[in-house]
Each structure stands twice: as structure tokens, then as C-alpha cells.
Amino acid sequence: MKDLADIKAEARARAFARRQAAWERGHPAPAALLMEVLAPHWGRPLSGYLPMRSEIDPLPAMAEAARHGPVGVPVTPKRGHPLSFRQWTPESVMVDGGFGTSIPESGNWIVPEVLIVPLVAFDRDGGRLGYGGGFYDRTLALLRAAGPVTAIGFAWAAQEDDGLPLEETDAHLDLIVTESEVIRP
């Protein structure tokens, strides 16, 4: 009998294949809806991410947000710890952040109130399957304990999966934005 870790690994493998296919098909402006969703939040501390491999690209929306207020990107800590966020602008000098990521060489640390959350798969109830490290689950739990936070999953529509193997500790999303729709769980 498979344990939950094996079931999640299989779900991730299927989702990565769907994400790769969506990325290869492309879209002329995948962040257009994300920018609309973020507009009411301009000026609030926001975090995004720098896309890797076939992740959908939030950078146009992040660049616009940075014109209105602080935008951070995650700095990946040791396993078992929450993320920290260093302020980013399109002009930031980037350095290796480990785990295949880049981070700003310098900048203030911010505490985001709005997070653009990368993911491997999602469902319409706000469920999110991440990469398996639990970084966003721990981070969202910590931030939500301190005050209101809006977690926005950003993904290709092809990453939707109605049968996600979720656990109690998997943090839910407040919204999911794809290249073609906004999903409000």
C-alpha cells in the first residue's frame, strides 16, 4: 500500500507534465489577470517569485506592484523553517539563492501581506500541492497567525487537479489565478 508521500510524489509528477505542456503552448500575456487581481492591493507589502523552469511568469505583475510599494521574493531557509522575503525590484542585482533560485544581493526584509504563491497543482477549493518542502505551508501559518494575509496561487490552468492528496498542514489559497480565469474558493 502506498503512503501519502508516494501518492503526493505521483501527483506532482503528473502535474509537472501538465505544467510543462502548458508552458510549451505558451500564452501572450499569462500575468494579465494576475495584474488585475493585484491592483486593489498596490502599496501593500507583496511577495512574488522568480519563475523557474515551466512555472507561469508573475514578473510583469510584480514589476507593476513594485512601482506602488514593496515587493519581496522568497529566500529559502534550511529545511523545516519558514521563508523570509527580501525586497526586489526589476533593477535588483541577483545572486544565487540555492535550490536553483535567485535572490536580490541586497535589500530590506519585508513581511508580505499579499503573497503570489507558486505551486505544482491546485484544486478549486483552494487546495495547493507544492514542491514538498513545506516552506509556504509554514510561512502562511506564521503570517496568518500574525494578521490578515492574502495567498494567491498563480498557475497554468492545466495544473488544476480535483484529486489532490492534501494534509491538514497544507495551507489553502484565498484565490487562484491562471492565464485564463480567477478562481475564488
Automatic annotation (TrEMBL):
<comment type="similarity">
    <text>Belongs to the 5-formyltetrahydrofolate cyclo-ligase family.</text>
</comment>
<dbReference type="Pfam" id="PF01812">
    <property type="entry name" value="5-FTHF_cyc-lig"/>
</dbReference>
<keyword id="KW-0067">ATP-binding</keyword>
<dbReference type="GO" id="GO:0035999">
    <property type="term" value="P:tetrahydrofolate interconversion"/>
</dbReference>
<keyword id="KW-0479">Metal-binding</keyword>
<dbReference type="InterPro" id="IPR037171">
    <property type="entry name" value="NagB/RpiA_transferase-like"/>
</dbReference>
<keyword id="KW-0460">Magnesium</keyword>
<dbReference type="InterPro" id="IPR002698">
    <property type="entry name" value="FTHF_cligase"/>
</dbReference>
<dbReference type="GO" id="GO:0005524">
    <property type="term" value="F:ATP binding"/>
</dbReference>
<keyword id="KW-0436">Ligase</keyword>
<dbReference type="InterPro" id="IPR024185">
    <property type="entry name" value="FTHF_cligase-like_sf"/>
</dbReference>
<dbReference type="GO" id="GO:0030272">
    <property type="term" value="F:5-formyltetrahydrofolate cyclo-ligase activity"/>
</dbReference>
<protein>
    <recommendedName>
        <fullName>5-formyltetrahydrofolate cyclo-ligase</fullName>
        <ecNumber>6.3.3.2</ecNumber>
    </recommendedName>
</protein>
<dbReference type="GO" id="GO:0046872">
    <property type="term" value="F:metal ion binding"/>
</dbReference>
<keyword id="KW-0547">Nucleotide-binding</keyword>
<dbReference type="GO" id="GO:0009396">
    <property type="term" value="P:folic acid-containing compound biosynthetic process"/>
</dbReference>
